[in-house]
Amino acid sequence: MNTHHQSTTNSIDLQFDKDHLWHPYTSMTNALPAYGVIAANGVELQLENGKKLIDGTSSWWACIHGYSHPKIVAAMQQQTAQLSHVMFGGITHRPAVELARLLVDMTSPKLTKVFLADSGSIAVEVAMKMALQYWQGRSQPSKQKILTIKNGYHGDTFAAMSVCDPEGGMHTMFGELVTKQLFAPAPQSKFNQAFNPQELDEISAIFADNHQHIAALLVEPIMQGAGGMRFYHPDYLAALRQLCDKYNVLLILDEIATGFGRTGKLFAYEHSAIEADILCLGKALTGGYISLAATMCTDEVAQGVSDSPAGVFMHGPTFMGNPLACAAAVASLELIKENHWQQQIGAIEAQLKQELAEAADYPNVVDVRVLGGVGVLEMSNILDTAQLQQQFVDLGVWIRPFSNLIYIMPPYCISSADLSKLTTAMKIVAKQTELPNATGEFISHG
């Protein structure tokens, strides 16, 4: 036993954390600072030193109802006491059935089958496997490629990595181990501007030349999240649906970041009035309280998978359909059904547009964009995450920038006053961020 690492108090041992715990996208030799959180309530995180921070990220876009919501907490406590986990092989339970019923009712009519997985990345893996098995069941086993668009992000596991941006993405270093997929240019027509149909030319050509090998088109609808927080035109997504129909290709929509109201519609695909063949859900599915994801598909896809040589769908995680996670999801979706999110997101969007508008005049801000409960300041330079993180903490907010983006996706229940604190902090930090010097090199570079 490494007794010299034992903590003598009840405090969070940040040094042990730094020495032994790997955090997302961090180095173990030059780790980003980690802040000790001991509690959370509403929209506030409480640090160990007693300081409270308004959370502008909804814990990576998931905790949409805020922290310690009594309905979700009560549902989880009751479920833990009754049945926290049981294998899903040959066994079912009420939380899974209730959750599936809610999802089938909430999503588009054709989505009737529900696969409950562990996380968003796995939901994407499941969707891709469904697509490949479907075409095996339809006697077209040569359809094994996935087509997607650049600037996308779909997760960190190997199949999910293969459909993330192939150039500027975070997974370019894995070389030949990552399956080579087909990539079309990212959409350029912005959500609230005129649509240019010419930007469909290249992806249309890819469909025409490769459709006999394409199993599915996989995209994030309307908002590309970790690939750059980009909002694209609904007509583009509608055209993708038409291309899939024309060339007999399945459409997989990754709504893990956009689902359950974040973009102003319950699901982002509703902006384009289309339906998916396969739909991936996660993050806010449980209100951000515990990991759970779902992959939904149509009767036709389910039939094709069942007709494949395997005769069954070849996936079954140990914690599939976990009762505790399903109970949290049911409670979260019941809150969604109360429809308060529509007024909440509308108010957040209006306030973000009003309060962030002035940042467009800052010399180091390239673009200001808002959609639903998402506000983004795109900066002219790559940001020093650790430095800006400390600035935001000093200002009493939790905002985690990445690349050249300062953005927020706050819990839906945030008050106008707390939202103003977030936008004020964004503007203060954005205004202070250094510009390129005379040589064209950025002074502040992470």
Automatic annotation (TrEMBL):
It holds the Pfam family Aminotran_3. The record marks Y25 as: Participates in the substrate recognition with KAPA and in a stacking interaction with the adenine ring of SAM. Pathway: Cofactor biosynthesis; biotin biosynthesis; 7,8-diaminononanoate from 8-amino-7-oxononanoate (SAM route): step 1/1. GO terms for biological process: biotin biosynthetic process. It is an enzyme of class 2 (transferase). Transmembrane segments: none annotated. The modification N6-(pyridoxal phosphate)lysine is found at K283. PROSITE patterns: AA_TRANSFER_CLASS_3 (PS00600). Its cofactor is pyridoxal 5'-phosphate. It comes from the Bacteria. GO terms for cellular component: cytoplasm. It is found in: Cytoplasm. Pyridoxal 5'-phosphate binds at G120, S121, D254, P317, T318. GO terms for molecular function: adenosylmethionine-8-amino-7-oxononanoate transaminase activity; pyridoxal phosphate binding. It catalyses: (8S)-8-amino-7-oxononanoate + S-adenosyl-L-methionine = S-adenosyl-4-methylsulfanyl-2-oxobutanoate + (7R,8S)-7,8-diammoniononanoate. Keywords: Aminotransferase, Biotin biosynthesis, Cytoplasm, Pyridoxal phosphate, S-adenosyl-L-methionine, Transferase. Coiled coil: none annotated. Homodimer. Belongs to the class-III pyridoxal-phosphate-dependent aminotransferase family. BioA subfamily. This is Adenosylmethionine-8-amino-7-oxononanoate aminotransferase. It comes from Shewanella fidelis. The lineage of its organism: Bacteria, Pseudomonadati, Pseudomonadota, Gammaproteobacteria, Alteromonadales. The gene is bioA.
